[in-house]
């Protein structure tokens, strides 16, 4: 019920929303929870396991009950805390975990069978018949479990991530946090203040408090005004600091666009912040804890502090007749504020025998609430008083078991909290997070005056570490009300008393877990699932530990507490993964011929981050094979042009450049003559091949290395490591020139003629022999020509500065077409290299040695090089290793799919008999047959053998002949032209 | 006590007072035939199989903290046998067969759910590698199926087939793969071992390994000295530290692997899906949480927690592959300590110290190996001969280069896996 | 984690790449215990650890970092070139 | 000789890419860029650079510019000479590598520039750590890049040519999101 006055809501405006289709209304300043309570909606959801009716229990992000689904369609969002959701016009909320409706939920039968569904029951049954788990038990369990449902459609909403840097991060904008920010701001520190709420103030928003003789919120307003005027202070509202990471890195979730209906298109829903701070102060306040008693989960039962929030901040009366139950003075404030608001208080129940009050209401000292009655909403509470049982008619019950400092963030770097007997709570251990001070209620200081003082003190310490001088302090007068908690965790009695409302874990469950020897906190947690629900056990952890301690005859300190891990509040994957959607996951790298390839309607395929043309279809070609065969023929019979710019190119210069290459390559480069190129093999220190490529010497102390597209980054990193760490004294300077040059292969019998025409110069062997390189000029543009071949044809690679790439590609393709050739893509390139037995990463797959690949002749015996020692291990040179061979089909079946295995004819196709496998295969239009490369035990010694190829997956069985890896022109006459 | 639906019914009717402890809490005896250091999944499984297969029960499992508190209690619960290198194939195949009988063998519902593991591929090259893997699995006698793009779409309609940065070409489907309730596996083995007479001793930290004349004689612990004829180090994550007590240096670096779980949601992901290109894998627990993870943080750590860059990368991978999970909220994150070997494969072997045995180096694949590893180590401890399924897990393979098992092909050296 | 690169100042972990334990590479081309040690065996300390990191997304320098593997506290960062392992 | 036949092509259309309010994204023309790597000891290069180009060798994270051009610190043992063709006489003091085509430069300028960058790079962009004229090698939207503060609200971003589209795309989207926030 809405009170006639008070509260921080704008009564001048009505905000309409729906809950389960019912049209309701509230005011700006409401949360969904306060608006629902104001509308008299007691039941807001169903519990996880027993599907019991549940009402709003808290007023913050720790809410265990009031989780709803917001919106519809792809935007539908499950498990939204009604207590955190600001109300906006047109908000649509649905209740969760109930069917057919919130009021009539069939699965409430679970509640009747509760005795059979206790802690860990599922570990003890559902085992027969064995196969039934997947089709019978598990689907049923899965359907019953879970809370809200995802839409199943792609999340359409934008989210973002951002970085921030500051001297001091203040976590929490209550009295302590504001005081810290004020002092630090005045001292000139670069401050970020994060507050979870949509307006700072913390508990002051919900309490009847005075600071400096005026309502506390006036001090808050004045303080905020001063802070906002400082350009060295940044206040981030709706921002929850979710995690502490190393060296002052924090994660924080900002709810950017969740409080409005019409969000401008690009405005993010959430922003996940990475904040780097030199120092920090945790002033996150404290969380109230309940007391467990029979049926303490009934709608209408809520935390005493939360009730004050609804009363004072939102002007909502929780009921017509309210009972207040607590074990500390703080609970009395709830009764006081209820009376002040004119709400009937049925009774104030204080478990402390000596307790007293001057409030004018029925007061029961040394008494305990033993039971809450009323299924769909509280009707009465039973009390055990020293003078006997009493039953109070109440439709709302405020419960306070005391307060737990919000120390979670101090534990994220493995810090453990310490137990305080006086406060019956865990307190943060100082210094467990480097550079972090803790202030206010988060340290167990529960008075406003104390919070202000502790904030000032923490600010002082932080400023010292920042080397800033502490400004003069004027601490305003503020409340110093007592607390005087006397621990009470669970009221003795029969029936089920809830500890973890969110996961339906009762006192019985915890005791049973202990009796089954799940005595460590971690065992109890895992066995009962206490603390694993969306509320992360914020409300229930300590109570459960205390009950466990009692059940195992230990005290709470010795029992300990489970580890707090990030995030402090659940963070949407869309926020943490912002930017990853669609193509945003990784940069796209485009060659200079990209647009032209698309214009020629080439399908583009990924090669690492690059895109490369698969083939260039021509009119009439219906299948990629037709295009591929044609492109191969172009190269073999006329001339083809391919963009090879994606290959890594590394420029090496310096006095020791040649020596350096001798070290990183297995073969020798110091003997390479200027103007010549050489094939090189590069191994990892572990003796396996990392990459291969050609390296050209273009000056006395100047080389250009090429790497494969796939390994370019790895090779560059490797070379940097070798030069900086292994041979730091050598003069070798490395720089990637991959992006500087556009490079095209021009291959085929007519390649020389084409290039002679293009360059207007003689390219005969005399001018440029095989494996030679020379500078060139194309109409004033300086470039470089290499006579190297990955196709086995007379071939060149021509390089020009990237800005001329598109222009040169277009021109080369035109000239090639004029000669009966044209552009060729990855498919043809692959066929051409397989015909020649050249290698790609299908063969250089990381497990192969130079020996396996038949490259042992490239391992120079006369010099040291990286991996030489490791490569000489017996296991890496064993004759029977799987070594590279060629394959051709000789039987009826011509299928040789890569990934197929090889067996001796007559052997069964099982692991023990496997002789090898296929790595690459293609149909060779040149040879008119299917050919393949693969690895075979003792391969080179088995040329001519017939083997049985088996591909279970694609049902291929093919008889193959083992042959040399080079299928075409083994003498290389074509290459030499 | 035997667990069954009937028992649950009976106990329910009598106030659940009859359930006894799942395992005993004995005080350590002065001497045992075999001491197993480490009460995680592998250690407990070893104890179970020593008792069951070899009738050896004068055995103690020494656990520094609580049973199942290591990686078996913090992982993404995936169970599969989809390796392709000899040495790994036969081991994980055997382990999966043990999984399939585990509930009945342990009389404990570990919720082994064979919901299928789907490994996506994103290029022709990856398809060929997947095909080789799949064929190797079938050669081994396990199941595999190659799905094309449409086949994947039928199983996983919610993936982004149009916009994902790395297009979905197809997948390798391993139907017998799936998940299990990780804690229950540890508890089930513990209960089984304890019932057969093995002593499970918690809060008992090993502080030294005693040897004399090149043979092991016992261990020093926080609860006193314990003599033993044979000692097995089964402390993945801490293998290096424990082995050091016997003066051993291992081919192991400890790295962190993070994992994440979301709030409970109604069923939406029915299989295990892995996205190699983006280092992302995900499944949904029976409680409804999406359980997912990615690659290592890639720096040595014993902190059991990771940092944001890896966490963010994992989430970004999830968003490009299956943007429908965007509104699921990450509830908890944690980090496990991975025993990383140079080739990414484990070690189950004797050491040069007589009577001292190693079971370590499980990298990020230890959970599915729990039964197989326990079975093989029990066999080695009992017979001093490696079990056929684990003969490839030699400690010496790095020295002699024989039988290296680098499934990823990123190099048989540290920091590449 | 944040690391202070001697050239670039304090930077986020995401700019750096771990390059392995800081060990001296053995001499000689023959496989022996020294090589096995260098390539495979590790102290793998739970505590202070000397490591190589590359400021890969930054200045490109390879750094010699002294770090605690239990707390991730960083004691020292220097350029590997000239530092010596 | 062959007729002039090759047309130069920037990776991105040069000039204005997006303007929202007073914040703008412009693709810069491709200047002459030469990587200078002095190797051990930088003194000779410092001397030669002053002599032949009138530029001082910048400290790490620094940039030195004149009417003639600029010299940018570009990472470990590397400087980028931007603008003038390098004097051949530098060759004795450093290795010279042509990089004019390797990088794409985009200028981000205006009141929202810093907020946009805060969403794309982990760099600390505050005046204290990135004053006017400071330069940094860092990550920009998952790409290796170079960022230079060329004005109080103006930043020049450089990434490899092949990734130019990705950079521009990210910049535009981010500016739009930041502008939408500003409008709240």
What is the element layout, followed by pairings?
The complex is a heterotetramer of chains A (977), B (417), C (85) and D (184).
Chain A: E1 15-19, E2 22-26, H1 32-38, E3 45-46, E4 53-54, E5 67-70, E6 77-81, E7 91-94, H2 109-112, H3 132-144, E8 160-171, H4 175-186, E9 191-194, E10 210-211, E11 214-215, H5 216-228, E12 233-236, E13 239-245, E14 249-255, E15 270-282, E16 286-288, E17 301-303, H6 304-313, E18 321-326, H7 329-340, E19 344-350, E20 363-365, E21 368-373, E22 380-385, E23 388-393, E24 396-400, E25 403-405, E26 418-420, E27 425-427, E28 436-438, H8 448-465, E29 498-500, E30 505-506, H9 507-515, H10 521-528, H11 541-551, H12 556-559, E31 571-572, H13 573-576, H14 594-599, E32 604-607, E33 610-613, H15 624-637, E34 640-643, E35 648-653, H16 657-664, E36 677-683, E37 689-699, E38 702-707, H17 712-726, E39 733-736, E40 741-747, H18 751-759, E41 773-778, E42 781-786, E43 795-801, H19 805-818, E44 822-823, H20 826-836, H21 868-871, E45 882-889, E46 901-904, E47 916-924, E48 929-937, E49 946-951, E50 956-963, H22 973-976
Parallel strand pairs in A: 1-7, 8-9, 8-15, 9-12, 15-28, 17-24, 18-19, 18-24, 19-20, 34-44
Antiparallel strand pairs in A: 1-2, 3-4, 5-6, 5-7, 10-11, 13-14, 14-15, 16-25, 21-22, 22-23, 26-27, 29-30, 32-33, 34-40, 35-38, 35-39, 36-37, 37-38, 40-43, 41-42, 42-43, 45-48, 45-50, 46-47, 46-49, 47-48, 49-50
Helix pairs in contact in A: 4-5, 4-8, 6-7, 9-10, 9-11, 15-20
Chain B: H1 5-13, E1 31-37, H2 41-54, E2 59-62, E3 78-79, H3 88-106, E4 117-121, H4 124-139, E5 145-148, H5 149-155, E6 170-174, E7 178-179, H6 182-195, E8 199-201, E9 206-212, E10 215-221, E11 224-233, H7 239-244, E12 253-262, E13 272-275, E14 280-284, E15 290-300, H8 308-321, E16 329-340, E17 347-350, E18 356-360, H9 370-383, H10 397-400
Parallel strand pairs in B: 1-2, 1-11, 2-8, 4-13, 11-18
Antiparallel strand pairs in B: 3-7, 4-6, 5-6, 9-10, 10-11, 12-15, 12-16, 13-14, 14-15, 17-18
Helix pairs in contact in B: 2-6, 2-9, 3-9
Chain D: E1 15-20, E2 23-27, E3 33-37, H1 43-53, E4 63-65, E5 70-73, E6 79-82, E7 95-98, E8 103-109, H2 113-118, E9 135-140, E10 143-151, E11 154-160, H3 164-182
Antiparallel strand pairs in D: 1-2, 2-8, 3-6, 3-7, 4-5, 5-6, 8-11, 9-10, 10-11
Domain SoxA A3 (chain A): 495-579
Domain GCVT N-terminal (chain A): 595-860
Protein name (chain A): Sarcosine oxidase subunit alpha
């Amino acid at each position: 019920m809405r009170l006639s006055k008070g509260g921080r809501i704008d009564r001048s405006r009505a905000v309409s929303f729906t809950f389960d289709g019912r049209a309701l209304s509230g005011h700006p300043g409401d949360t969904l929870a306060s608006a629902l309570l104001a509308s008299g909606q007691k039941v807001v959801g169903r519990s996880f396991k027993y599907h019991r009716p549940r009402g709003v229990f808290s007023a913050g992000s720790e809410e265990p009950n009031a989780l709803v689904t917001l919106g519809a369609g792809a935007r539908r969002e499950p498990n939204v805390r009604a207590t955190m959701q600001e109300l906006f016009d047109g908000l649509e909320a649905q209740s969760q975990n109930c069917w057919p409706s919130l009021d009539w939920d069939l699965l409430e039968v679970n509640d009747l069978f509760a005795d059979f569904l206790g802690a860990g029951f599922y570990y003890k049954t559902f085992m027969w018949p064995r196969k039934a788990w997947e089709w019978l038990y598990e689907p049923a369990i899965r359907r019953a479990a879970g809370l809200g449902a995802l839409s199943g459609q792609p999340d359409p909403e934008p989210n973002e991530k951002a970085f921030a840097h500051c001297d001091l991060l203040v976590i929490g904008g209550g009295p302590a946090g504001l005081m810290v920010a004020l002092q630090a701001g005045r001292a000139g520190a670069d401050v970020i203040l994060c507050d979870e709420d949509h307006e700072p103030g913390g508990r002051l928003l919900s309490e009847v408090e005075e600071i400096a003789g005026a309502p506390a919120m006036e001090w808050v307003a004045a303080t905020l005004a001063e802070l906002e005027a400082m350009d060295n202070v940044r206040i981030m509202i709706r921002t929850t600091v979710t995690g502490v990471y190393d060296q002052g890195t924090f994660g924080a979730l900002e709810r950017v666009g969740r409080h409005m209906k019409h969000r401008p298109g690009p405005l993010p829903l959430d922003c996940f912040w990475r904040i780097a701070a030199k120092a920090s102060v945790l002033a996150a306040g404290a969380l109230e804890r309940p007391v467990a008693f029979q049926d303490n989960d009934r709608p209408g039962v809520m935390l005493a502090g939360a009730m004050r929030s609804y009363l004072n901040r939102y002007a909502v009366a929780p009921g017509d007749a309210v009972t207040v139950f607590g074990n500390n003075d703080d609970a009395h404030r709830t009764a006081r504020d209820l009376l002040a608001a004119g709400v009937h208080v049925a009774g104030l129940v204080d478990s402390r025998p000596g307790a007293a009050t001057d409030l004018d209401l029925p007061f029961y000292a040394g008494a305990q609430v033993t039971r809450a009655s009323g299924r769909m909403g509280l009707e009465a509470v039973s009390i055990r008083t020293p003078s006997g049982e009493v039953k109070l008619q109440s439709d709302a019950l405020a419960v306070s078991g005391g307060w737990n400092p919000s120390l979670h963030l101090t534990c994220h770097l493995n810090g453990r909290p310490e137990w305080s007997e006086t406060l019956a709570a865990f307190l943060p251990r100082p210094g467990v997070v480097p550079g972090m001070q803790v202030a206010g209620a988060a340290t167990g200081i529960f008075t406003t005056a104390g919070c202000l003082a502790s904030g000032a003190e923490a600010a002082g310490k932080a400023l010292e570490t920042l080397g800033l001088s502490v400004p003069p302090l004027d601490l305003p007068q503020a409340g110093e009300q007592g607390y005087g908690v006397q621990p009470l965790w669970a009221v003795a009695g029969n029936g089920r008393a809830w500890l973890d409302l969110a996961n339906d874990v009762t006192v019985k469950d915890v005791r049973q877990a202990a009796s089954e020897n799940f005595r460590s906190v971690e065992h109890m947690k895992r066995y009962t699932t206490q603390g694993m629900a969306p509320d992360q056990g914020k409300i229930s952890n300590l109570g459960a530990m205390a009950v466990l301690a009692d059940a195992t005859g230990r005290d709470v300190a010795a029992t300990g507490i489970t580890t707090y891990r990030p995030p402090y509040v659940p963070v949407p994957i869309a926020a943490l993964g912002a930017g990853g959607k669609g193509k945003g996951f990784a940069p796209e790298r485009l060659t200079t011929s990209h647009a032209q390839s698309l214009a020629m309607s080439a399908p583009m395929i990924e090669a690492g981050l690059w895109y490369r043309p698969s083939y260039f279809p021509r009119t009439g070609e219906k299948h990629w094979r037709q295009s591929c065969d044609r492109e191969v023929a172009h190269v073999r019979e006329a001339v083809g042009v391919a963009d090879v710019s994606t290959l890594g190119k590394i420029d090496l210069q310096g006095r020791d450049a040649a020596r350096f290459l001798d070290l990183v390559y297995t073969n020798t480069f110091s003997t390479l003559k200027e103007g010549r190129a050489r094939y090189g093999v590069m191994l990892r220190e572990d003796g396996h091949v990392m990459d291969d490529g050609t390296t050209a010497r273009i000056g006395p102390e100047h080389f250009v290395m090429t790497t494969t597209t796939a390994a370019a980054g790895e090779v560059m990193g490797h070379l940097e490591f070798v030069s900086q760490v292994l041979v730091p004294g050598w003069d070798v300077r490395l720089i990637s020139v991959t992006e500087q040059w556009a490079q095209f292969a021009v291959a085929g019998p007519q390649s020389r003629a084409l290039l002679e025409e293009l360059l207007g110069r003689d390219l005969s062997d005399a001018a440029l022999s095989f494996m030679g390189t020379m500078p060139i000029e194309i109409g004033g543009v300086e470039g470089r020509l290499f006579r190297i071949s990955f196709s086995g044809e007379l071939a060149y690679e021509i390089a020009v500065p990237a800005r001329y790439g598109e222009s040169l590609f277009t021109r080369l393709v035109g000239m090639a077409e004029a000669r009966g050739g044209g552009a060729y893509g990855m498919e043809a390139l692959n066929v051409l290299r397989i015909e020649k037995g050249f290698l790609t990463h299908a063969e250089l797959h990381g497990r192969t040695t130079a020996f396996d690949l038949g490259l042992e002749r490239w391992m120079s015996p006369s010099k040291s090089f990286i991996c030489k020692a490791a490569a000489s291990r017996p296991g890496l040179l064993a004759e029977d290793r799987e070594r590279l061979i060629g394959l051709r089909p000789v039987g009826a079946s011509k299928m040789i799919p890569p990934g197929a295995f090889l067996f001796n004819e007559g052997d069964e196709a099982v692991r023990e008999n496997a002789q090898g496998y296929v790595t690459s295969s293609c149909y060779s239009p040149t040879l008119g047959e299917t050919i393949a490369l693969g690895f075979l035990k003792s391969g080179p010694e088995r040329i001519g053998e017939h083997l049985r190829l088996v591909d279970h997956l694609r049902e291929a069985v093919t008889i193959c002949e083992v042959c040399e890896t080079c299928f075409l022109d083994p003498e290389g006459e074509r290459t030499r032209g | 006590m035997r667990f069954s639906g009937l028992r649950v019914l009976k106990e329910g009717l009598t106030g659940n007072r009859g359930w006894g402890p799942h395992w005993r809490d004995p005080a350590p005896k002065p001497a045992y035939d075999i001491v197993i250091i480490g009460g995680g999944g592998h250690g407990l499984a070893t104890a179970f199989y020593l008792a069951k297969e070899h009738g050896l029960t004068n055995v103690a499992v020494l656990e520094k903290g609580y049973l199942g508190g290591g990686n078996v209690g913090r992982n993404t619960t995936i169970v599969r046998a989809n390796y392709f290198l000899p040495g790994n194939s036969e081991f994980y195949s055997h382990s999966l067969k043990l999984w399939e009988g585990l509930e009945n063998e342990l009389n404990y519902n570990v919720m082994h759910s064979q919901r299928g593991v789907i490994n996506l591929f994103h290029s022709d090259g990856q398809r060929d590698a997947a095909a080789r893997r799949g064929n190797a699995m079938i050669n081994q006698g396990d199941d595999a199926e190659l799905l094309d793009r449409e086949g994947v779409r039928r199983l996983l309609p919610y993936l982004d087939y149009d916009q994902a940065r790395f297009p979905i070409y197809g997948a390798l489907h391993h139907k017998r793969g799936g998940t299990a309730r990780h804690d229950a596996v540890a508890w089930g083995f513990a209960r089984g071992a304890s019932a057969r007479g093995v002593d499970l001793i918690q809060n008992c930290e090993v502080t030294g390994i005693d040897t004399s004349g090149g043979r092991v004689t016992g261990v020093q612990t926080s609860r006193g000295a314990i003599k033993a004829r044979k000692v097995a180090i089964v402390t993945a994550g801490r293998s290096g530290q424990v082995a050091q007590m016997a003066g051993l240096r291992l081919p192991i670096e400890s790295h962190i692997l993070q994992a994440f779980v979301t709030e409970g949601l109604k069923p939406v992901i029915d299989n295990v899906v892995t996205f190699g290109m983006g280092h992302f894998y995900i499944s949904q627990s029976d409680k409804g949480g999406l359980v997912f993870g990615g690659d290592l943080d890639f720096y040595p750590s014993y902190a059991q927690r990771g940092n944001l860059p890896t966490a963010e990368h994992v989430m970004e991978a999830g968003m490009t592959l299956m943007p429908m999970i965007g509104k699921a909220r990450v509830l908890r994150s944690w980090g496990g300590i991975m025993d990383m070997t140079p080739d990414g494969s484990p070690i189950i072997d004797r050491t040069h110290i007589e009577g001292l045995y190693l079971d370590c180096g499980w990298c990020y694949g230890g959970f599915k190996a729990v039964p197989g590893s326990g079975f093989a180590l029990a066999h080695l401890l009992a017979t001093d001969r490696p079990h056929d399924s684990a003969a490839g897990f030699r400690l010496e393979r790095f020295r002699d280069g024989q039988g290296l098992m680098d499934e990823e092909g990123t190099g048989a050296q540290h920091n590449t896996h | 984690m944040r690391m202070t690169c001697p050239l670039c100042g304090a930077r986020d972990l995401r700019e750096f790449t771990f390059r392995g334990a800081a060990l001296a590479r053995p001499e000689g081309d023959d496989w022996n215990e020294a090589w096995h040690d260098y390539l495979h065996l590790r102290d793998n300390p739970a505590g202070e650890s000397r490591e190589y990191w590359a400021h890969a997304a930054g200045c490109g320098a390879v750094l010699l970092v002294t770090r605690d593997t239990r707390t991730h506290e960083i004691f020292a960062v220097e350029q590997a070139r000239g530092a010596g392992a | 000789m062959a007729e002039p036949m090759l047309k130069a092509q920037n990776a991105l259309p040069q000039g204005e890419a997006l303007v929202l309010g007073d914040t703008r994204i412009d693709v810069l023309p491709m200047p002459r860029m030469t990587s200078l790597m002095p190797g051990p000891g930088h003194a000779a290069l410092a001397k030669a650079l002053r002599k032949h180009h009138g530029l001082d060798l910048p400290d790490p994270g620094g940039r030195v510019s004149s009417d003639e051009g600029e010299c940018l610190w570009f990472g470990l043992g590397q400087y980028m000479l931007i603008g003038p063709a390098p004097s051949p006489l530098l060759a004795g003091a450093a290795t010279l590598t042509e990089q004019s085509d390797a990088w794409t430069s985009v200028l981000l300028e205006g009141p929202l520039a810093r907020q946009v960058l805060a969403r794309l790079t982990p760099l600390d962009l505050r005046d204290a750590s990135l004053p006017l004229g400071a330069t940094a090698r860092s990550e920009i939207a998952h790409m290796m890049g170079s960022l230079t503060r060329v004005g109080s609200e103006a930043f020049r971003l450089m990434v490899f040519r092949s990734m130019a589209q990705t950079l521009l795309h990210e910049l535009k989207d981010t500016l739009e999101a930041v502008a939408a926030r500003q409008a709240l």
